[in-house]
Amino acid sequence: MTVFNLSAECYPVAKVGGLGDVVGALPKYLVSEGIDAKVILPFYDKIFTQTHTFESVFKGQSNLGDQSFAFEVLKESTNVLSFELYLIKIPGLIDRTEVYCYPDEIKQFIAYQISVLEWVITQNIKVDIFHCHDHHSGLVPFLIQYATRFDSLRDIPTVLTIHNAQYQGWLGWDKFNYLPNIDVSKTGLLDWAGCINSLATAVKCCTRYTTVSPGYLQELKTNSNGLEHLFYMEQQKGLGIINGIDPDVWNPNTDTMLAHNYSITTVKKGKENNKKALCTQFGLDDSKPLITFIGRLVLEKGADILPYIISTCLEHYKSEVSFLVLGSGEKYIEEALSNISISHHYNFFIGYDEQLSHRIYAAADFILMPSRVEPCGLNQLYALKYGTIPIVRSTGGLKDTVIDVEENNGYGILFENTTPEDAIQAIAKAITLYKNTKKIAALRKIAMGLNFSWNQSAKQYIQLYNSLITKL
Length: 472
Ligand code: ADP
What we know:
Blueprint: E1 2-6, H1 18-32, E2 36-42, H2 47-51, E3 54-64, E4 67-76, E5 84-89, H3 105-122, E6 129-133, H4 140-146, E7 158-162, E8 170-171, E9 191-192, E10 195-197, H5 198-205, E11 208-211, H6 214-219, H7 228-233, E12 238-240, H8 267-282, E13 290-297, H9 306-316, E14 322-329, H10 331-339, E15 346-350, H11 354-363, E16 366-369, H12 379-385, E17 389-393, H13 396-401, E18 413-415, H14 420-435, H15 437-449, H16 454-471
Parallel strand pairs: 1-2, 1-6, 2-5, 6-7, 7-11, 11-12, 13-14, 13-16, 14-15, 16-17, 17-18
Antiparallel strand pairs: 3-4, 4-5, 8-10, 9-10
Helix pairs in contact: 1-16, 4-5, 8-11, 9-14
The structure holds adenosine-5'-diphosphate.
Residues 17-19, 21, 164, 294-296, 326-328, 352-354, 357, 376-379 line the site of adenosine-5'-diphosphate (ADP).
């Protein structure tokens, strides 16, 4: 079975968040189960593309409205990722350094989707499933059914995985002419609330959709940035499959990015050593519990309340705790975090740094996630794997994966609301917990022994694919 994974991100080629992690890992597990899972990404001018060899497998031509464009399909030559990786390159449009945030992003992703389909029909490539990830490939289920040019693909089942429904790929109807000729009676399928909405279109037109946790599947019906009614209407097509951890990348025993490797049996010393190294680097006091935040500094993640939480805790619990923040995002949050005075109890790194994130997971005692929305959340899973106790708001995937310490077999701290009060109360619990060294040692072992592997989740995806193919 050949599955085309269409995504904007794939670690280690291009990663901004969890989407990259998932698309870099899931296909490996699908391949190991006998599925021919390929990943097709837009081309990025990044370290991976600069340091690997690619062969040109196709050159084609298509149109965005009355503008024609040339594209090339490049294949990574050595299969270094354990699955076939293809990149769509369009000089001047899809050959840049960043993944998102260009003013012509809409054009980029439409051209990417059209190019993939054009390549498939021109070369008559066998595709059994199109697996679209988020809104960047969300028009594919529509295009293969209703664009006359891609008519030959119309019976191919499509799976949409929603990693984040906050971002929906909106475009004004004035951009309608970017799309190839379509059956005009179907244009309503593109519309949601007066504009073309790529994610809504994908939900309407895909064969099945999945979310990255069962909890998030339910939440979308009441909290999905305007698509609540749609998710309610289409709920019979939905399935929640929790993400896994890729141990090739996330394993404290073998992680080459760490200052010191450790396992479940050496976790105490291992974390101590990593904490010492990190605290020296950031001028923090390593005798205090280290609470960290890693992530996009956006409302979804509750990052806006971080500056207040940190300042208040530093005032109330003066010398009892240290904080380290790694992230980037909204400028006002970056500024507020930069304005908290740096001391041996607080420091921050504004930016994106993969190695530093690994070092923090290994060194920290607690990771704080006050998320308003969390489709799955990978940070808490990585933290657990590295023996770091999550302090999380009870929502979406966080609720599905973290059990509170006060419950049987619990290993984390849960709080109810994204408010400074609830988060600060949870931090107070963490500070008290930290003093109980026996309990902390036991929790770390429980955390590291948890099994959030991809094996199980990959099997669920395969079951889904099989059900779609046998239906035909
Ligand atoms: P998101 O909603 O951002 O996708 P996830 O929890 O699913 O959230 O995944 C976040 C991923 O991005 C994790 O691998 C995390 O370590 C990583 N990450 C987020 N921000 C940064 C950063 N500033 N530097 C390094 N890694 C980061």
